[in-house]
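Lab meeting, action items carried over

1. Structure of the four-component assembly. Owner: GW. Status: complete.
Input record:
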Amino acid sequence: MLDLAILGLLSDGPLHGYEIRRRLRAQLGLIANVSFGSLYPALARLEKAGDVAVIEGQDLPVALPATGSLSGQRAQLRSKRLVGTRGRRSKKIYQLTDKGRTTFESLLNAAPSNDDQRTFGLRWSFARFLAPNARLALLERRRAQLVQGLSDGVPSDELDPYAKSVVDHAAKGVERDIAWLDELIAIERAQQSSTTNPPASPAAEVSPG
Amino acid sequence: MLDLAILGLLSDGPLHGYEIRRRLRAQLGLIANVSFGSLYPALARLEKAGDVAVIEGQDLPVALPATGSLSGQRAQLRSKRLVGTRGRRSKKIYQLTDKGRTTFESLLNAAPSNDDQRTFGLRWSFARFLAPNARLALLERRRAQLVQGLSDGVPSDELDPYAKSVVDHAAKGVERDIAWLDELIAIERAQQSSTTNPPASPAAEVSPG
DNA sequence: GTCATCATGTAAGCCGTTACATGATTGC
DNA sequence: GCAATCATGTAACGGCTTACATGATGAC
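Predicted assembly:
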């Protein structure tokens, strides 16, 4: 899931870790507060897998002026100490590779699993990268899940007032979600039919919001 | 969190694991699908900690009466087989201990942490076990969190339509949650003032739903 | 020259999952 | 008698968090 989010954000252009996190909170309020302890390892993993590649921060000299001094000045030593051992400490800007783009698409499409309960919002945020029919499929799958969940657990009565208020409120929320999905489905359908058999009106850029 | 849910459910009377899970889905749709792989270990842990105690299933003969029944013999043998080694295989009915009751209350009250983002619904389900002022505090803390979250991440524009639709829908959901909390707060306030200084009208049993 | 913020990382651990393994009960 | 369901558990593992540790940059 984190991978999906990272690859998705990088689809719009190179970013460094810190910035990725910032956007994660800002744009996808859902995943708010992904900690560095999971973000950086995830980036390292993705790099190792060849899905992303580092392009060293441009604002730092890319080609290090290889200092000939063996001992060197203390200040210099401290700032460069790590270069030989594990890489420099500065912005590491990540960029999607071709493989990464492929990975992203398969992550985005594939998901009959039940975890798209949480990842639906994330997926839909990246819906522009999906084919129109995949978009519709995603929406309808999600809708079915919600309907299912509603019919499943609704005894509601014979709960004490507090518990009941929670259940009822949650149910109302799910109903709203379904209504929202119905809007989105309608929009998608309209768009699809308008592009497949080009009618009179252009109707460009229909907003799903 | 699972502990809280378990202890809360057991506050209404003894239950066995399977039933706890059933109620978890039914009553608290939130935690739906807690797996056995986490439920049973949790119960074991709680038992070890002395928060719950096992009362062997009453529907099974505790003192096994030597039935003359033929088919019963095999079944009895089989069910007894493990008694010496690891305990019998049958319903294990759990019951809250006094310590468990205390643990439950502290779990329910204590939580300045950020995880009550997810646990709020659970907590409120058990609000009847909270003192009136603790109930109000819980509601107001939750409200503050939601308001905070709303003001935090709302650039909203300059996102593509799909991402925007997600963000906007989420924001609307949060607003609805806040409105709901406001209702609950009003109800609590009314109840509190009506019980502290008893006015004319009884106004018994105000439903928060 | 020091403080806040930006920036990257490691280590330990929690909480939960899936997959596996087994036994008991009930209905047909 | 056999299948479905009820019922309990273990093992392996995964993802994310907190806490820790470090370094660079810019503002004042």
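2. GW to write a short summary for the group page. Key points so far: The mean pLDDT of chain B is 78. Strands of chain B lie at 15-16, 52-56, 92-96.
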